[in-house]
Amino acid sequence: MDGRNKNRKHSYAGGPPKGAVLLVMVLAAVIILAIAAFRVAADSRKPASSPGKKPTPAPTYAASSGETKKDIGILEYTDTETKTLQIYGVGEEKTLWLTYTSATDITDKYGQAIVAGQLIRGDILEIEYEASGGIARSVAIAKEVWEHPYQTGLVVSTKREMLTVGNRNFIYSDALHIYNNSEMVELSSLLEQDSITLKGIGSEVYVIVVERGHGYLTLKEGQDYVGGSILVNNQYISQITEEMKLTLKEGTFEVTVENDDLKATLETTIARDQTTVLDLTEYVRVPDPIGRVTFRIQPIGALLFINNENTFYGQPVELPYGIYTIQVESGGYISYEGVLKVESAASELAVSLPEAPVEEEPGVTTEPNGGQSEENPSGNGQENNSSSGQGGSSLTGDGSSSNEGSTSSGNSSDNSSENITNDDGSYRTDDDHNIIIYSDDEVEIYLDGDYMGVIEEGKAEFEKFIGTFELELVCGEEKKSYVIQVDDDGEDFIFRRYFDE
Q1: What Cα–Cα distance (Å) separates residue 489 from each residue in 107, 300, 421, 430, 493?
Q2: What is the pTM of this model?
C-alpha cells in the first residue's frame, strides 16, 4: 500500500492531467475567436474614406456677436481672393464690405446655388448679414428685379427725380448706380442717343448700364469746308463751322463733307468717350503758289497801286502767281503804269519816276538867281515876286528836300516866302486837287498855325493851297515842323511823315 501512494505522488509531481490541458486550450481558442469577431464588427461600422484624405468638416457659422440685418444691395465689386463683397446697401445708404464663407448661401434669381464669382457688378441683391461681424449669411439676386435692355431716348427730370424712356416713367434716388465700361459715371453724362439697360425693382431704377455710348468728331484741315455741310450715313447732321465738334453714337459710319465744288467721303469709327479726328488734308483745295515781290521805288514816299489797290511795299509783297497792273505815283513826278507778272517764289521790281517838266507861264522869265519876275506892261522892270529865304530848305510833296538860295534883294533877311494870293488877298487854291498827308493816326495837322484836321486811318486830305507853308504835325506832346512848297502843278500834293521814323 505504501508503494502505491508513493507512485501517485510521483505521477502528480510530473504535470497536470491531460484532460485539464485540453480544456485550457479549448478555452483559449474560444477567447481568440471572440476577440477577432469583435474587431470585425467594429470595423464594419466605420465610414469609407480615401487614404490620406481628411473628412470635410460640417459647415458652421462664426459665432455671432450682434444682430442680423436684411437689405437690398447693389453689387459694386467682388474680391474672390479675400472673399469679400463690396455692396451698396440701399436701406443703409452706404457701402458695406461683407465677408462670405463656405456657409454663405449664394443663389441666383431662381434660387439655384451659384458661386460668388458668378455675380456681376450691378446685380441687385437681397442680402442678410451680421451687423457687427460683417459676415454674409445669404446673398441672392433679387427675385423681383426687372430689366429693360438696350433702350434709347432717355429723358431726365432732375426736379422730380424721374427718368423717362419711351412711354415709361421711373423714379430714382441717390442709390442709382450708372456703369459705363464698368466705371461709375454721373447721370448728366448720358445722352438721348445712348443705348442703355435699366435694372430696378417696382417703379424705381437702381442700375443703368451703358451698352452703346457716344463719342466726338472733329475735322483736321477743314477750313475749305467751313459753311458747307456734313452728312453721316447720307443723313444731314450739321453745317460745318470753325472748331466744330460733333457728338455721335459710337460705331463705324460713312461721313461726307462738302462745300461748293469740294466733296470728300470717308469711313470713320467713333469710340466711346473719345474724340475722333477726320483728316481732310488730301481733300482741300490746292493753294495757288505765292511769290514775294520786293519793290525798289524812287522817289521815297511814292504811292504803289496793284490792280488799283493802294499797297504798302515797305516789305516784300506776297502775291499769288499771275499778272497784275501796277501804277506808281508821286506829286511832281511823271507817273508809271505797267504790268507785273509774278511767276517765281521771289522777284524784285525797281521803278524810278522822272521829275515832271516845269512849264513856264506866259510873260514869266527865270532870273539868274532862280527867282521869277513878271514883266511890267509899262516897262519899268519892277519885280513883283520874292523868293523863299536865304539858303533855306523846303520839302516837296514826296518828302525830299531842295535848297533854295534866291532872294529878291541883297538886304532881305525874311525867311518866309510870300504865298501866291488872289486879288482879294486870299490864298490861291487848286480846286481840282488836294493836299494829302499820310502819317500816324490821331496826328493833328497845322498849316501856318491854322488847324487843318487830324489823321484818321493813316490819312488826311484837305484843300490844296498854292505857295510855301510851315507844316506842323503834332502827336501828343511831340511835334514835328516842316517847310513845304506846294506848286500849282495840276497834281495832288502828297506828303508822308511818321513819328516812328
Answers
A1: 110, 19, 16, 9, 9
A2: 0.49
